[in-house]
Structure formats: structure tokens, C-alpha cells
Design goal:
This protein is of the alpha/beta class. The chain is built from 14 helices and 25 strands. The longest helix has 16 residues.
Amino acid sequence: MSAAGLRHATERMRRAGLPDLAVEVFARYYAQLEEGRTGLIPEDTIDPVLDVTDIAEVEVSPEQQREALAHTVLIKLNGGLGTSMGMDRAKSLLPVRDGLSFLDIIAGQIRHTRTTSGVDLPLLLMDSFRTRDDSLAALAAYPDLAHDGLPLDFVQHREPKLLVDSLEPVDWPADPALEWCPPGHGDIYVALLTTGLLDALIDRGYRYANTSNADNLGAAPDGRIAGWFAASGAPYAPEVCRRTPADRKGGHLGRRKADGRMILRDTAQTPADDMRWFTDEHRHPYFHTNNLWFDLVALRDALAARGGVPGLPLIRNRKHVDPTAPSSPEVYQIECALGAVVELFDDPAPVLVERARFLPVKTTDDLLLLRSDAYDLGADFRLRLVPERACLVRLDPRHYRRIADFDARFPAGVPSVRRADRLTVDGDWTFGAGVVATGDVHLPDPGTPHTVPDGTDLARYAAALDAGSAAGGEMSDR
């Protein structure tokens, strides 16, 4: 059964022009899938990683920073479509602040760094086959971003989605593009090889790469981290942040007991019975930001020693072929994680960074916060938190999960949350202009669509609703 499935899948990849190395990597993961491997990493097979370098305690001179940046390339992972928020194009095109998208702000960060450091820092997007055209069209507004002799992007590979019941590549005539999926961010290493970019960067004198997700605007170019990494001599350095009770989903580093190698464990790789340990911020005190630094020469050597095949751990994702249609067939997407490359190196050096370097937007809850007055966007295009702590936002996913629904319910902009600790919205509320939240605010589900009037003090409004409910009155749209 699966032997035929592998043949059909690899034939499909070759007809689509995928390079031999990408096909070989897929075939190896397919074999693991056929054997029934899940990629799970039980808690009793690893020890927590506690020894990290705190970048706040490191001194790096301006000269060291400039020298390191002069040999660094910034790579943004830009393959995501934002399907979890109902999008069908690159998430990085979503407006974040003042009409500026993720890509606009990234471009601003790069240009500001070039101006202030005197270094022509190159930007590379790793696009997917579904995000490339729109993203390059958006960056055309910044013709000075192009770096002489280097492209603005490269495209990660694609692979067939596999039917769960047969491991055959799925056919979906309604939208043939949905028959394919990217193989996860971990494909970057194979893509750098097959495009020739790894050799090209090294030949041009670049020694270091800093990678991060395009939806994480906190990961701006950083000369201090670059200078520390260059001086450390480490082949690889993942950025980590100190975990809090709010950080229950982020992956973390562990040390494998069997061979002492440092590894990355993500949520999808954790057995259900071990989730209590995965989410324990005391046992695993640091979470993995997916901001990585690696030595390009060390990476090339590590890949060469493996015939170009990184051999990163399998992540088996079970989804529907059409993410918007739960009735569509279930498929496996074979993926691997960017940070899993840690186990290829003998002496990786995790570095503890400030929380400001981790501002991902995975949900509309996150988007509300970045669009709000809790953050200021500086002239350097960096987002800075104004209050001491960010407000915890939870919006009813029935009404706010999709970006179109979210925008429709905040037609005049999101509320002020600069002085709020928590904002919880249950039910279907549309917000007027100038709405302000302070303290801990909970809007209950009114049962029918309601509107919060312009200029409303949400704390008082919610208290009045509670008082009316306690008195037995019905909630009114006022």
C-alpha cells in the first residue's frame, strides 16, 4: 500500500520540478511515517536545558557589533498564509500598525539598521510557493532593499499531502494547490543548498545568519547579539526567553539522555500524558523563540557530513486537505522544525534574550495587542511595550478568529488597553471609537450581536452589565 504511495508521491514531486535532494528528504520522512513513527519525545527521555548565556550580561563594543553585522544575513521565514485567521495569502501582508504590514515594518527595520550601522545588511525571505508573488510585489515599494548580487527571496520546497488511510498523495481537483504543503521551516537548510544560496553567501564573505518568523516583529536586527555570537565561536545559537504561566505552548530545548545531544521539543512532539511537564515553567524555564543564529560554514560542514540530508526529527501533522472544510479528507503533512537543527552541532549556545524579541502574531488576540496603544512604533520601526506588562487578551473565537470578522467588529480601531491587565470578550460585540479598557475587563456573551458605544469606559460598562444581570434584568444594547 504505502510503497505505491511513496512512488506516486515522489513521481508527483519530480513532475513538479522538485530537486533530487528534496525528494530524498521527503522519502526518508515517508519511510518513518510508514513505520508508524510519530516524532513524539517523551519527558523521561530528556533533561531540561538550564545553562544559557544571558545577553543582558554581555558587553559588546560598537566596533564588534558593526563587524559582526557586516558578515550577517537576515532571513525571514515568510511561508505562512495565516489560514488559522481565515487568510488565503501571506500573513506578512496583514496591516499591523498605521496601515503598515509586517513586511513594511521589517523593511523599515532593515533600512534603519543600514543607516545607523553603516552596514548594508542583506534581507532574504524564505517564501513558500503560495506567498512568493504577493510578498515580492509588496517589497517592490522598497527598491533600495535589494542587495547587489543577492535575491530578495528563495522558495522553500513543497511536498504532497498524504491521505491518512492510505498514505497516497491526495487529489483535490477543486483546488489542486491544496494537494501540496510546505515541509515546515526546517526545510530552510535543504533549500539553501538546492538554490546554491549557502555557497553564494559564504563566497561573498557572509559568515552568520539570523533567522526568525516574519510575524515576529520583535526579532529586529541586533548588533549586540550578532557581536556576541561572532565572538563566541559557537556554530549555532537559539534565542530563548524566560517562561511565564502564559507561555504554555511554546517549544523548549532539552538534552537527550541517550546521547547527550541538545534537541528541540515542540507541542506536536509531546505525548499527551507529558503535557503537564511540557507546560511546567519551573521544570522547563525557557521557551524557544524560533529566532536562530548559525554559522554558515559550520552549517555547510554539518550538512556535507550527512550528504545534504539534515535528518531532523519528524513532525507528523494531521489536518484536512482543505483547512476551511472540516468535511474534506484527513491528510498527513510531513514537517520538520527549524530549531531542530540544534542536534546537528556539538556545542550549541542558547542565549537568553529580552521578551521584547518575541512578539509573534498567531491569533487575532495577538493582533489586537500589537494594534493597540500598549505598543509604540518608534522611528527605528521597533515596537516597544509602554506599560510594564502587556494586557492578556482573549476574544471569543466564534466571532473574532477570522481576520475579516475581527476587522468588522473594530471598524474604528481597537480599544485602548494601555492600562488594562486583562480583556476577555465573550459573544458578538462590535466596538465603537475611543473605547478604553482598564484593569480586568470581561464582556459577557449577550446572546445576540451588541455594540459598545463610542467613548465607552469598558470597566464601568462591564460592571453595569453585571449589576443588571444580578438584578435579573436583561442585557440591553446601549
